[in-house]
Write a structure and sequence with these properties.
Elements: H1 3-20, E1 28-32, E2 40-45, E3 51-55, E4 60-63, E5 71-73, E6 81-86, E7 92-98, E8 105-111, E9 119-122, E10 129-135, E11 141-146, E12 150-153, E13 161-162, E14 175-180, E15 186-192, E16 196-202, E17 210-211, E18 222-227, E19 233-239, E20 246-252, E21 260-263, E22 268-269, E23 272-275, E24 281-284, E25 290-294, E26 302-305, E27 312-319, E28 322-327, E29 332-336, E30 345-347, E31 354-355, E32 366-373, E33 377-384, E34 390-399, E35 402-409, E36 426-436, E37 441-442, E38 453-460
Antiparallel strand pairs: 1-29, 2-3, 3-4, 4-5, 6-7, 7-8, 8-9, 10-11, 11-12, 12-13, 14-15, 15-16, 16-17, 18-19, 19-20, 19-22, 20-21, 23-24, 24-25, 25-26, 27-28, 28-29, 30-38, 31-32, 32-35, 33-34, 33-36, 36-37, 36-38
Length: 462
């Protein structure tokens, strides 16, 4: 047997072992180059490539290549920007405060061209300070803050009105986050430090909001929520004082009827949370210079240091292979998935939606990737390397219901995608998404960070 053939067999065995490993280890994070030294308070990605980060002194930066490079956008304000949200590549909003010059209060920024230009409008009442913003569609949006905890718009942000909230001792406490599971069911979270953490929820699209019952009030504010499904919601917060109890978690498993608050024996405050896949979650601890992760859907947590001991406050996973975080001094970090991290997942998959294992696998130089959809859908099928970099786009179009098979070749660029020429041997991931063409986001997102996706591994062996 030749030396080259022996090496190829050894390489194949090692790769197969790697692919068979259980997903028991989390990936790592790396620090990216940044255009700014201003604190970044918010980050939002509509897909793995296109994202925005916003922060102090009107800072907004944009990437179209997954964070490899960024450009500065002109927000036309020097106010601190607290939150930013995009429905698709073009339509986005941000919220800022004016506290130095009259009139004091909330200013809403809006762009219809991906941030090439931003327009600003003032909230119709003075001394209202909103600090989070999201939209369900181009017209219907929400902001949370104080002293009006929840306000809504039905005309794309031209006008805003105070939301109807039931009477409660806690109903007018500040709101830090609003998330919707679908067009009807939504949650908000907030509270006051050293006092209590509050949850609001709606079952009728925001026409009316209920407030958490007194027995379920948390001991500290709940800063961010993640809606896992119609019954399970997880919020994060905590006590940042050195003599406090540390990171806290707020949970419901019955659609908001009852809640439980617990401390997880990790010092600090969790400021944000997002799930990489159905079971793996990450939260940012800000000044503790740490992140925490869970591999069991948020039941148990493990702390890890951030790159360069940076302070990360906000993070987002646009899909299971890509994650981004931002924090003080312009810091931007990016998630690097481990080879054994990504299982053959079908995350949040609707009936009749299926991604099949490629064949042959391992392959050289050609393989076939099959999938099935049950309705007329806008479909995205892409290939990534182990660092999460996109190497090929195989499908990006509307398709009728049915079964499909796509040929992927690494040889001459003639296959779908065409940009996979001369790929090196190794493990690659291919990911199928059903995309809502009206927003450019994964179907079902509705302002929350859930998506219908499926990811599988394949091996290129030369």
């Amino acid at each position: 047997m030749s030396f080259i053939k022996k090496n190829k067999i050894i390489f194949l065995i090692l790769l197969l072992i790697a692919c068979q490993n259980n997903s028991s280890a989390q990936g790592t994070w790396e620090r990216l180059n940044s255009l700014t030294s201003e604190n970044l308070n918010s980050v939002y990605f509509v897909d793995s490539s296109h994202g925005w980060a916003a922060g102090n002194l009107g800072t907004i930066i944009h990437t179209s290549n997954g964070g490899d490079s960024w450009i500065m956008q002109d927000s036309k304000t020097e106010n601190n920007i607290l939150d930013i949200f995009f429905l698709n590549h073009d339509l986005g909003w941000a919220v800022s405060w004016e506290v130095m010059n009259y009139p004091f209060g909330t200013y809403v920024l809006k762009t219809t061209n991906g941030g090439l230009s931003w327009d600003s409008s003032t909230f119709p009442e003075e001394n209202i300070f909103s600090q989070c913003i999201l939209f369900q569609d181009p017209l219907n949006g929400w902001m949370g803050g104080k002293p009006y905890p929840i306000v809504r718009t039905t005309d794309g942000g031209i006008s805003w009105t105070e939301a109807e909230i039931d009477s409660s001792d806690f109903s007018q406490f500040p709101v830090f986050d609003i998330q919707f599971y679908n067009s009807k069911y939504g949650y908000a979270s907030g509270g006051v430090v050293d006092c209590c953490g509050i949850i609001w929820w709606t079952t009728n699209g925001g026409d009316h909001w209920q407030v958490i019952d007194t027995p379920f009030v948390a001991l500290e504010p709940v800063y961010q929520l993640f809606i896992k499904d119609s019954l399970n919601v997880l919020g994060v917060g905590g006590d940042f004082e050195s003599w406090g109890f540390g990171v806290g978690m707020m949970r419901t498993s019955n659609g908001g009827s009852s809640w439980a608050w617990e401390y997880i024996d990790v010092s600090g405050v969790a400021w944000d949370i997002d799930f990489r896949n159905e079971n793996e979650a990450w939260a940012s601890l800000g000044g503790e210079q740490k992140l925490i992760f869970s591999l069991d859907a948020g039941v148990t947590w493990t702390p890890v240091s951030t790159p360069d001991s940076s302070m990360i406050f906000k993070l987002i996973f646009p899909d299971s292979l890509h994650g981004f975080g931002v924090g003080t001094n312009g810091t931007i970090i990016k998630y690097k998935p481990d080879i054994s991290d990504v299982q053959n997942e079908e995350e949040f998959s609707p009936d009749g939606f299926m991604l099949f294992q490629n064949y042959p696998n391992p392959f050289n130089p050609t393989t076939n990737i099959g999938f099935r959809i049950s309705n007329f859908e806008f479909v995205s099928l892409k290939v990534y390397d182990v660092l999460g970099r996109e190497v090929a786009t195989l499908v990006n179009e509307e398709l009728a219901a049915g079964s499909y098979e796509i040929n992927f070749s690494d040889t001459d660029g003639s296959a779908s995608g065409g940009d996979a020429y001369n790929l090196p041997s190794g493990v690659y991931f291919y990911q199928l998404k059903i995309v809502d063409p009206s927003t450019g986001l994964p179907a079902g997102r509705q302002g929350s960070r859930q998506s219908f996706t499926s990811t599988k591994k394949m091996i290129l062996l030369r």
